[in-house]
Amino acid sequence: MSPVQRWPLHPQPGPLESLSSWLNRLADLYEIPVKELLTRNLGLVDLAVPADLDYDPPMTMLHAAGTALRMVADGTIIAFGRLASTMGPEHRHIYDRDRPAPHRGSWQEVMAEIEAALTLARTDRDSARLLLILLTLGCRTLDWFEEERAFLFGVGVPAEFLPSAHDLGRTDLA
Fold first, then answer.
1. CB neighbours (10 Å) of residue 130?
2. Which pLDDT score, from 0 to 100, does residue 1 have?
3. Single pTM value for the model
4. How far apart, in whole angstroms, are the C-alpha atoms of residue 27 and residue 36?
5. DSSP letters of 125-155?
6. How many CB atoms lie under 10 A from the CB of residue 62?
7. 20, 25, 92, 130: which could join 53 in a potential S-S bond, CB 3.0 to 4.6 Å?
């Protein structure tokens, strides 16, 4: 069998387009049946194409997609298309003077915001009070409230900055 050749035309799936719709559109473009597109042209020999391709794709297709994703992650191949930027290999540390990624991830941003809020709460009574209110919004028991209050005290927020549940008017706590 000859190696699989890249097709000259390879339209991308449309937004929210189903697998079967995209394969039918691609097969129509080359004027061949979908089964022939998947078997002969993609090298998937003896593939049984189910009637409900969108909900039950053949395992060989899933394996081929998984292999492609692994190759993108390993850097063996380069992804292209609408979602290519989401599949690129992660930054790898190469040497000691390697610079960190230029953009912070959302987790890093959240952690920086939390640390800034804690830093302010350690020196500002009103900020400490607001942070305690935020952390205890979902508390349903007095013990739970006191655990959250103890957490803030444990990370350096002065106890005198942290009002009690009674002082905050939390009469709903059991």
1. 14
2. 46
3. 0.42
4. 8
5. HHHHHHHHHHHTTT--SHHHHHHHHHHHHHT
6. 10
7. 20
